[in-house]
Design goal:
The protein is mostly helical. It has one domain (2-146): Arc Repressor Mutant, subunit A (Orthogonal Bundle). 71% of the residues lie in helices and 0% in strands. The chain is built from 7 helices and no strands. The radius of gyration is 17 Å and the shape is globular. The protein starts with a helix and ends with a helix.
Length: 147
């Protein structure tokens, strides 16, 4: 989940995962057993990710590196689609990316994702709908290029 949220930044995702497990270990007595243990871990990981994003915004004023227009790596179409999808996912808001990741890539229900992200189920559904619509627009160029 963290690798998807960080846009494939494996080093950052690994650091956040390590901190997630440390915090989970220290807080085991706070786990109430109401929901799934994995949902509890996802919640800790998501909170750490959001905290990192907030800190990064405070210290960074420059934009993320954007790909050079017209630059296409010599890869197969399937690999290119995966790269395009990852790039499109980076363009989504954190909440949209997290909702899509939890529901479609991790297989959580809307209710479980709402518990992890600490928001109403309706918000999860809205974030998924908005995220999917944005992904369609972002990937439209790939679709026309592949045809």
């Amino acid at each position: 989940m963290l690798r998807k949220l960080t846009g494939g930044d494996f080093a950052l995702a690994d650091d956040l995962a390590q901190e997630t497990f440390i915090r989970a270990y220290r807080s085991l007595t706070k786990y109430r057993g109401k929901g799934k243990f994995s949902s509890w871990l996802y919640r800790i990981a998501y909170n750490l990710f959001i905290s990192h994003i907030r800190k990064k915004r405070e210290y960074t004023t420059s934009n993320e590196d954007k790909p050079i227009e017209g630059e296409v790596p010599p890869e197969t179409e399937r690999v290119q689609l995966k790269l395009d999808l990852n790039q499109a996912m980076k363009q989504l808001k954190e909440q949209e990316r997290a909702a899509i990741n939890l529901c479609y890539q991790k297989g959580l229900s809307h209710e479980e994702a709402a518990e992890v992200l600490d928001c109403p189920v309706g918000t999860i559904k809205t974030n998924i709908l908005r995220g999917k619509n944005k992904l369609r627009l972002f990937l439209k160029e790939w679709n026309t290029r592949a045809i």
